Amino acid sequence: MRPVAVVAASAVSARGLGWRGLGQALRTGTSAATPCEALGGILAAQVPALPAAQDVEPRQRKLMSRGARLSCVAARQLFQEMPSLPREETGFFLGVGASGGAVEELEAMLEGSFSEAHFDVGRFGTAGLNACNPLFAFQLMNNYTLCHAAIREGLRGPNAAIFSRGAGTVLALAEARYAVASGECETALAGGADSALHPVTWAELRRDGYASVMPGEGAAVLALAPQGTGSSLAILERCEVHPRRQQIDLSLESARRSLIAFNPEVVVLAASSGRGGSAHEIAATVGTGAVLQASEFFGETLAASAALATVVALDLLQEGALRVGVLVAGPDESLGIVGLVREGTS
Amino acid sequence: MRREAFVRGVGAVSSLGLDWPSTAEALARGESAVARVEHFDVEGFPCQVAAPVRGIAEGAEDRRREFALRAAREAWAQAGLEAAPERVGVFIGAESGRASYSTVLALAQAAGGGARFDHGAFGQRARELAPRIDAAAVSPAAVASMLAGEFRARGPCETLSLACSSGAAAIAEGVRAIRRSEVDVALCGGVGADVDPLMLAGFGLLGALSARGVSCPFDAHRDGFVVGEGAAMVVLAAERGNARASVAGVGRSLDAWHLTAPDPEGEGAAMAMRAALREAKLEAVDCVQAHGTSTQLNDEVEAQALRRVLGSRLAQAHVSSVKGALGHWIAGAGALGLLCALHALERGEILPTAGLRHPDPRCELPHVQGTALRKRVDSALVNAFAFGGANTSLVVVRA
Fold this sequence. Notes:
heterodimer, A: alpha/beta, 13 helices, B: alpha/beta, two-stranded antiparallel sheet, globular
């Protein structure tokens, strides 16, 4: 199996486009929270207006969930940063959320479903659905977060859309890494895209105990290739998930052991404030003690959180760090670990 | 030396049977479960037929989990394996479940209950709404999580959401996890529970469903697919045991072409098939379990891609699709295809394409029509192609 390097990256977050400088911003900055209209005015980490060169055309936006639009933006930015990346047989592995469906479409659907101020099931199945975009179903299908970007950029290689509330995106990174390491493809894009700014998603998060969380949105994508085939930003040394469904203490302990074995100088922590206590404890006892809190900076970005934390780690390596770990503990109750090292130090 | 993914157990719930043997027997006889929908009013719907599962999970909040659990128990019992919990992984193809009408009603009320969606009102009332949203019923991951708990699996737990290729992609992930030694046992498969008003209306509005109400893959009169539902599960293991088949090849590709239509040249589909055959070190197979949805363009493109990939060797393969009998299971379709291919290997019986009466010349293939074809099968190709252009092919061989 070939060692795998990160050769390019891109990100879109509440901090705007780009990943360089995010490490320093996390150390010194505060979250760019603004009131979110879709969530009744609560503070959220929203992506600011996007430059037209990266953003999708207004006509296309009607076909997309917010996550799909953000994944398109991140993928476009990646290819603008590194146009020499091949596309035809490039793999694409993405952690995706289930936060689809424009509220405007929901509004039209509900509007068509009322009869004399009462919700009518019969009208919902006919007039309600007729009132909304016929392609509304495709805003709701999770794979389109991946497929929209693949169509836009001409990516045709092996692929997977892995449902993620956090650590699932680490599985997407692991699968991409394996696809490159095993020779299934020579290059692969991997990352995650999602938005927690959807009213239903936000209501679910509150129901699940994340009342104190600040919702966020974003996307980040890494380009992976065999080590030695191009300019390397980092070596992707570790990608693993420790499930937390049963015997939580054992899973925490195995994650802690793994992170200690990786021996990072810095840990970038993507853990929601609601239930991320255990992950915070682990991070605090590993390495040299430097812990950067990504979730408080980007907000809870669900399927994007692991990928955004990983591009922060990548930035820290460019600033001089040798080994940076990422610890992810999203609402999916699993712990994910990503380990990046500067080339020549593994 | 590469670790193999041996097939140790299979299970299914379908509209023709609540386990795999009864489903396969009915399919072999050429039976079809496609019929007019009776359990809700389909008057005015663009397509009024489907292949719903009857007899279990009726009225359940999340029918996906009921189907998947029953199919997984069947597969698990057949496998009879014992493995350390942390060496068992779960890989499931599933899409989001459907919110109940009471949830939709709650949403409407929280948004003001009037003609306009009031963001402010919704934000303020969402706290009251939250308990009414059954996240477990709508989350794609709920199926895999439930199965992991049921079978005490503490290894990787993945949910693949790739629309119509989800089930096949989940099996591909299970195979990969065994090969890279992350797990010794993988419970894999797919589930769809889409015979409901929302999906029938949604797919109908897109024009994807058969207005004639007939599922007839590769037929000259095909005019769209019919929604079906069910679950198909397989237990893969690194240890051969009494296995008679293994998954020897996995191929995945993207069309990068269009949101709803396949690449008319079929190059994406061909890439996935070629990759799976290359990994299995094969140039020919004895049968093909086609995606075969019964839509105009998909069937023609798949047939064209098969002819290009297999060339003159296509003559020795026989091609079938069970969507004529069971409808299209969406996220479960690829996993069902794998079970049909395994049936061909183990029983020497290729299941027929129900509904196929007048093969379309543009879909010229060695079809299996009427009833099952008896033939020794040593290798089979399984195709699953999704909306949005995500393709997965699998190759199974005699162990």
